[in-house]
Amino acid sequence: MKGLLLLAVAALGQGLPDGSAFADPSPNNNPNTPPQKVLQQDSHSPLAPSDGSQRPNIVFILVDDQDLQMDSLLYTPRINRHLAQQGTFYANHFVTTALCCPSRVSLWTGKQAHNTNVTEIYPPYGGYPKFVAEGHNDNWLPLWLQAGGYDTYYTGKLFNAHTVDNYDAPFVNGFNASDFVLDPYTYQYRRPVYQRNRDAPVNYHGQHTVDVLAAKTLGLLDDALAGERPFFLGVAPVAPHSNLEMADETDTTSFRFSAPIPASRHQHLFPEARVPRTPNFNPDRPSGVNWIRRLPQQNASSVAYNDEFYRNRLRALQAVDELVEDIVGRLERAHALDHTYLFYTSDNGYHIGQHRLHPGKECGFEEDIRVPMFVRGPGVPAGHEVDSVTTHIDLAPTLFRIAGLAPKEEFDGTAMPLTAAEIEADRGSRQEHVNVEYWGKAGFEGAFGRAADGGPTTFLNNTYKALRVVSPRFNLYYSVWCSDEHQLYDLTVDPYQLHNLYPDIANPQNKGRGITIGGHPADQVASRLDALLMVLKSCQGATCIRPWQTLHPAGDVASLQDALEGRFDAFYASQVRVEYGWCELGYIVEAEGPQVPRIYQETHWSDWV
């Protein structure tokens, strides 16, 4: 996604990609300042002083379902001005589960979903009740920050299945003050229900949910600024998630998703916008595996509907764009902006039309797992773009570093580089892998993705383990499905993930003869990726950060390139393979197949034959 911010910043002064005019409330800003690739060392440090004084504040904005690959950032001029121009964009930032509730739990605990055991949005495998049952309500980020000397606040969406019936069973732990939007009204844009602290829920029927959230955000921000301690404020708008339509409010299973509803002041915007027509948009030939490969090509009516669905996502984002500017303005007036870190990201990405998919997420493609990620704050280079691989499980360790707290051994991620010095130090040493995992079902949103009864389309056996590798030499995606189907994409030559290399590699007649990846035989690369995924699929703590050390305890392998040395060929050819026992809807260890890889020992090559 290199160059995206240049386009986004340019869009501020030249209109939007569809030719629409957009009023910029700050015309004196220079919209044509490109991201600076030469870093200037800043005297500020994100690390808190040892005496606990003057520690920075943290404002964390977590939107719902915002895409990166479909150019939504070209339509958010305020976010671009206040965060892209004044902060750093992390171009290779990924989620580890492409679904809101498990992704959010991973973010707020610093753990992979196989370690949180929250893998779905509703019980028995996910949702707020599962979060509580797994003990996370007593052991997660806001509690850790409070113990470390921070006041903590939160408003907006927390988790799915956090409802008007169970919000007090138990109350959410860890916040000085909170104001949550609750199911089954979370995704009802014009009839949200919010619940403050330990008060009863309040219905805001007829008001736009993001406007309600904006007022609550600024109120909590005022409270935080008036306090004597540094603060953390989480802000979680539901936009641009789809709107939820309930047929019967007494039956939470009778619903369907339609396009998001923008605030009335934004309904007219972007009349000519449409989903980018990338090569993987509604392709002539099917792609992917499993249920994805069986999808029919969308017809003209479906494409037109999905384009309007896309426009309403962009329109719904405008209230979020305004909210970001409101937050920055309030911090600036309080003289707190220079002492506050602002984070902006999404719980997962989104697809519309790519690989013939109707609106939704839950897949391992780039559209679903790569998300916007901005950081602005003390010591963070302005207008910069970072190529290092970062993930949502790195965010809790990052906030710990900002707060001056020692990282927990249980963290499956590591702090993101924030300052110029950290970015430079990370450039050649940071991990190159992302562990992506998913269990259970997938579904579509919108009219053309509905089942015959009008409800959401559901695909079972959407269970897979996946691996992304991003380095100067490799740009790869590898996955193993519970159906025993595999995917391997070389994004260097196939950035839209249209040609799955694995069937040719696995073909016993040629074993991928003639196919190379990064100058290496593709079957050898695949063997290393599978071994790496074997470690990551059940990793914990440091093993998730340095998985090669599990395979090579001597420490002589730290990257895919290292592992491709010829002396390891026999070892990887004999390695335990990733596979499932059977397909499950949640994380059931017995169904997960082999858990332990072989360990490399410096023995004679014949021992591995």
Automatic annotation (TrEMBL):
Membrane-spanning ranges: none
Gene3D superfamilies recorded: Alkaline Phosphatase, subunit A (3.40.720.10)
Keywords (A to Z) from UniProt: Glycoprotein, Hydrolase, Signal
PROSITE patterns: SULFATASE_1 (PS00523)
Description of post-translational modifications: The conversion to 3-oxoalanine (also known as C-formylglycine, FGly), of a serine or cysteine residue in prokaryotes and of a cysteine residue in eukaryotes, is critical for catalytic activity.
Residues that bear 3-oxoalanine (Cys): C100
Region (Disordered): 19-52
BP-aspect Gene Ontology terms: phenol-containing compound metabolic process
Entry EC no(s): 3.1.6.1
Domain Sulfatase N-terminal per the UniProt entry, residue ranges: 56-404
Signal peptide location: 1-15
The family this protein is said to belong to: Belongs to the sulfatase family.
The protein's name: Arylsulfatase
Record organism: Aspergillus heteromorphus CBS 117.55
